Structures are given as structure tokens and as C-alpha cells.
Amino acid sequence: MTKQKKEKAKKEEVVEEDSAAAVERSYSDLIAHVNPVAQPLASKKLSKKLYKCVKKGKLYTCVKKGKLYTCVKKGKLYTCVKKGKLYTCVKKGKLYTCVKKGKLYTCVKKGKLYTCVKKGKLYTCVKKGKLYTCVKKGKLYTCVKKGKLYTCVKKGKLYTCVKKGKLYTCVKKGKLYTCVKGKLYTCVKGKLYTCVKGKLYTCVKGKLYTCVKGKLYTCVKGKLYTCVKGKLYTCVKGKLYTCVKGKLYTCVKGKLYTCVKGKLYTCVKGKLYTCVKGKLYTCVKGKLYTCVKGKLYTCVKGKLYTCVKGKLYTCVKGKLYTCVKGKLYTCVKGKLYTCVKGKLYTCVKGKLYTCVKGKLYTCVKGKLYTCVKKGKLYTCVKKGKLYTCVKKGKLYTCVKKASKVKHIRRGVKEVQKFINKGEKGIVVLAGDTLPIEVYCHLPVMCEDRSLPYAYIPSKMDLGSSAGSKRPTCVILIKPHEDYQEQYDEVFEEVSTLPKPL
After folding, report:
1. 419 plus 462 within the same structural domain
2. What is the pTM for the complete model shown?
3. Cis amide prior to 435 (ω within 30 degrees)
4. Are 434 and 368 within 8 A, CB to CB?
5. Distance between CA atoms of 244 and 236, rounded to whole angstroms?
6. 426 FRET partner, CA 20 to 30 A, in 15, 151, 384, 448?
7. Coiled-coil ranges per the record (predicted)?
């Protein structure tokens, strides 16, 4: 070989090495941008079939010669499978992110590719923390693939494509909505919730489903089904079934079914059951079923609930029930209590409730309520987060008699002034005084000077009992011989009240 040919070959080798190094650097930069953890792994030599998937949070990427492939589990490693231009990552039904040419895409099931689509055009899912947003010139779009609707959670002017590694179904303005626990639209893994205001929908664990406004539907095995207007359908193994209103239906083994709108029926795993209406049922532990007779849960007419062992549930809105103490609560119709999650008893504003002497009741935070027992009036007195009941008939009478002989001090300034001067008596505070900072220091002063004090519900009632047409937030009752006996009785009862924690 001539000297000139040798020099030319050497230059070509240098150029090839430089271009290969540049490709490697650009790929390393891409991996570092998408997943910093992946950078040191990219340089390692991987086998022909098994490749390491680089983890970033709950997202995985597998690398082979500068390209990204599908992660398929095989032992502790993952097999990278090339599939067209996009790549899919799947592991135990979780969601992963595939990256190609610097763009991020959301992958859902093995062999299925998804991207943000609007009117036949493709858009890029732009990363924002752990969420992905579909953005096109500041407008709002829906993620669509072959007629199937996917993620869209409203956040400001954008829509979020992914939330905590799961996809949800939503479309704005009366079509499909995203399910969020505790809001109008709910589809949470492993539980039954209400999706559209006043309507019922069933979400099956770990899958993507479509909620159709005004109807009851169940979709199984991650498929979306068409709901025909005026009929109720259950989606099972890719088929549609019709429930006829007013009849009883059989639940097929291991599946969830929706019966007639507004009625409650029972499905239990592993057996065939007939739906019976008008009963109280309990949900099976960890499953998406509506209710088995003889347990501790109440199914509310017109709403479906999933009961989970060890949690508390709320009774029917607008109705009163009795709560039985324990981990689980039974709602018993005909009593004067409303069961609220995480509380023993809750007083509802504007209602009268029965208070048992010496027991504690939980009223709504920052509000006082009137209790009734055998025709006598009581008031709720705070003890930490609980309240007890104090007879208020004698208290009002005592205020009235003290005002006649002018043995009262009224108003915050006057009461505070004479407490500091050493006057003794009973302090009565109105519980509806706002802001509470007006007199929040008075209970401390009373406790420092061993003065008994009590709350009553209304400052208007307190003012009128003192002979005034104006509301009064605090009164100090001083002892007097004209009503000494009644004063002593009220003094004793108020003194025995439990102090706030």
C-alpha cells in the first residue's frame, strides 16, 4: 500500500472515531436528561437479549446501543423489544415512560402505544415534575388513541396527562371526567365512587374505564365500551349485556356488575348470586363489591360505596343515625346523630340533639349546639375536641334575676376590668362571638382566678336574658341574697364542668 493511501485510511479512522464519540456523547446527554441514573449504565456492555432497565421513580427505560426499547420482565433483568417507532414499557401492570428522540410518551399496556392526539395530529407530552402535560400553542387538548379517551386533569389552563403512575379518563364539559377521591368525579383504584354529580360509576381496580354521564356501567379488562342511551350495560370479557329495570339479576363469578339505577344489589366473589333490593349490606374486604347482609355497613340508596375493613364511613346525607363505638360503625335509623368519618358523634347546625349527662359529644369545630333531654335545654361545652352538655335553663334565669338587681357586669372591657379588681362570680360567654379573639383571653383569666365559666350558644339570648335588646358576648353574674340559692346551684354545676384540654 502506498504512503498516501495509508495516510488517507488513518484520517478516515480518526473521523469515524470522532463521530462515534459524538454519538455516544449526545446519547449520554439524552440519557442524563431523561434519567440521570441511566448515564453510568449506558456505557456498560449488555447481552444480546437481556438489558437493564434504568429506574427513575416509577419509570423505567432500557438501553441498547443508543436506542430505547420496551422493558419486558425476564428474571431480574428486562428484555428490550423494538416495536415500530415508539417503544412500550410494561412491568406488572404499572405505567412507564418511553423516550425516543428527546420526546416523552406515556405507555400503558404491553404492545399498545399511546401519545397525545388532537384532530389527527401528534403532540408531545412535556415533562413537568412527575406529571405530563399535553400542550399545543397554549390550548387545551385531550389525549386520544384510536377512539379511546385518556388522561386530562384540569390544572390551571393546562391538562395533566399522568398522575402518580396511573391514567384516568376525562373530557371537559359533560362527557368523560377524571376521577379524584373526595370530589365530584371519582375513580380510585380498588374503590367505588361517584364520578359525575348525582350519578354512579364503577371503577375496576388497576384498569382504565370510561364513565358515561347519567348511567351505571362497569368495564372489565381495560377496555372501553359504548353505552347506549336509555339502557344499562355491564362490560364482561369484551361483551355488552343489558340489565332490564325492575328485575333481579345474577352476578357471574369473579366479576362486578351494575344493576338497575338507584337500587342496591349484592355481588360476592366466587359464587353466583341473585340481586335482592332494599336490604342493608356490607362490602367484602379488599374487593369492589356492594354489600353482604348482616355486617356493619349501610348502603345508601342511590349511591354505591366500597367498604374497607378498619375505616369509618359516612351515613346518608340529610338523615340522622346512631353511631356504635368501635372500629366499624353501624348506622341505626331513628336516632338523633349523624355519623361522620373519623368522629364519634357530630351535631348538625340548626338541629336539636339528645345529650346523655356525663358523656362527651363532638360538635362541629368552632360551633356550639343546643342539646335536648326530657324537654330541658342544654348547651355544648368544649373539652378539647369533645363537648359535654350543661343545663342552661337555670343559667338564663340566674342572669335575668341578677340584671334586675343590677348585680352583673356585661361586655368584655367591663368584665375584664372587675375580674382584675378581684370581683367574684360566674362568667357566661356567648359561643357565637366572632372573631373569637375578642374574648379568647377571658377563660384564661377565669382559670387563673378560679372563677367558673360556661358557654351558651347565642349572644342574642344572653343579651335578652340580661334585659337588653342588644347582643352581649360575656356577662359576670355576682352573688346576691335575692337569688342566692339559685346562684349557689348554678355555681356548683358550672364548677363541675370539665375544663378544656
Report:
1. yes
2. 0.28
3. yes
4. no
5. 17
6. 384
7. none
Query: Could you tell me if 458 and 408 lie in one domain?
Result: yes
Does residue 154 share a domain with residue 92?
no
Q: Which domain holds residue 450?
A: 395-495
Q: In terms of C-beta density within 10 A (0-12 exposed, 13-18 middle, 19 or more buried), how is residue 141 classed? A: buried
Is 195 inside any structural domain?
Answer: no
Query: How many residues appear in the chain?
Result: 501
Q: How many CB atoms lie within 10 A of CB 476?
A: 25
Domain shared by 43 and 137, yes or no: no
Collapsing DSSP to helix, strand or coil, 387 comes out as strand
Task: Tell me the sheet residues that pair with 234.
Answer: 218, 241
Q: How far apart are CA 284 and CA 269, in angstroms?
A: 9
408 touches 476 (CB < 8 A): yes
Do the domain assignments include residue 255? no
Same domain, 487 and 407: yes
The verdict on 95 and 124 lying in the same domain is no
Domain count, the chain: 3
Extract the C-alpha cell encoding 374.
326530657
Q: Is residue 100 part of a domain?
A: yes
Q: Spell out the per-residue pLDDT of the chain, length 501, in tens.
A: 456 655 655 555 544 444 333 333 333 343 333 333 333 333 333 333 444 555 543 344 554 444 444 454 443 344 444 433 333 343 333 333 333 333 333 333 333 333 333 333 333 343 333 333 343 333 333 333 322 333 343 332 223 333 333 333 333 333 333 343 323 233 333 333 333 333 334 333 333 333 433 333 333 333 333 333 333 333 333 333 333 333 333 333 333 333 333 333 333 332 333 333 333 333 333 333 333 333 333 333 323 333 333 333 334 333 444 444 333 334 444 333 444 443 434 444 434 444 444 344 444 333 444 444 434 444 444 444 444 444 556 788 888 888 888 889 999 999 999 999 989 999 998 888 888 888 888 988 988 888 888 888 788 888 888 888 888 999 999 988 888 888 888 888 888 776 654
d(CA 285, CA 298): 15
